[in-house]
Amino acid sequence: MTDGEKQLWALIDERLRPGADVARIDARIWELFGQTWAVVFTDLTGFSRMVAEFGIIHFLQEVHEQRSLFGPLIATHGGILLKEEADSMLLLFERPAQAVACLIEMNRRTHEVNRDRAPENKVLLCAGIGYGRVLRVGDRDVFGQEVNASSKLGEDVAKAGEILITEAARTELGDVPGLRFEPLTVRVPGTAMSFRVLYS
Q1: Checking DSSP bridges between strand 180-183 and strand 194-198, what pairing results, if any?
Q2: 10 in a domain, yes or no?
Q3: Kindly report the CA angle at 100 between 174 and 151, in degrees rounded to 5?
C-alpha cells in the first residue's frame, strides 16, 4: 500500500468513529486527493464471449494486442493509463477534447487492423468519458461520480466503435468542428444526461 493509500484509509477509519466530524474529514480528503480529470473507461466488445469460445490464450493475445495498438496513441494524446482490468482500460486525460481525439484515433486504428481479419480476431473498441472532480489516489485508482458514470457508459452501454460521454464532459467540450452529439435515451447513475459522439 502506498503512503497516499495509507493516508486515505486512515482518514476513512477516522470518519467511522462515533462522533467524527465527517464534514471536516471529507474536506481534508478532497483537499489531499481531489483533482479534475477526464476519466475514460474502454472495453472490447464481445470479449467475454470470445474468451468462452476460444480460450484463455486468445484472451492474453487480445490484451497484449490492445496494449501495443493503443499505448502509443494514449501517450501521443497526453493520456495516462491508470490501470487495466481484463479487457478494460482506465485512462485519464486533462481535458475531454484530448480523450475524444484519442478515442477517435483508436477506433480508426482498429478499423485498419480489422480490415482483413476473421471475426474472432477483430478488435472492437467502445468507450465512456466523464469529466470532473475526482479523488485520485496515487497512480492506482480514481473515485467519484464521473468515474462511475464513465465506467457504466464504456463497459455496459457502448457498442463497438461508440464513444459515449457524460453531460459534464459534453459541457466542457463545447462545440468541436467535425463532431456532433446525440443524446441517449438510456440513463446511467452519476449523470443527468449522456451523449453519443458522432464523427466521420
Answers
A1: antiparallel
A2: no
A3: 105
Phi, psi of 149 (to 5 degrees): -65, -45
Q: Which domain holds residue 171?
A: 34-198
User: Is residue 117 one of the residues assigned to a domain?
Assistant: yes
Rounded CA-CA distance 192/136 in Å is 23
DSSP string over 116-163: T--GGG---EEEEEEEEEEEEETTTEEESHHHHHHHHIIIII--TT-E
With residue 70 as reference, give the H or E element that holds it.
Answer: helix 56-76
Whole-prediction pTM: 0.91
The verdict on residue 2 lying in a domain is: no
Q: What's the rounded Cα separation, in Å, for the pair 193 and 191?
A: 5
pLDDT at 163: 98
Regions of the chain where pLDDT drops below 70: 46-52
The residue with cell 490464450 is 57
Q: Are 103 and 163 in contact (CB under 8 A)?
A: yes
Residue 22 lies in a domain: no
Element (H, E) at 37: strand 34-44
Instruction: Give the CATH number of the domain where residue 158 resides.
Output: 3.30.70.1230
pLDDT digits (tens, 9 = 90+) for 32-71: 999 999 999 999 876 566 666 777 787 778 778 888 999 9
Question: Do 160 and 126 touch, CB atoms closer than 8 A?
Answer: yes
Q: What's the number of domains the chain is made of?
A: 1
Residues 6+ away with beta carbon under 8 Å from 17: none
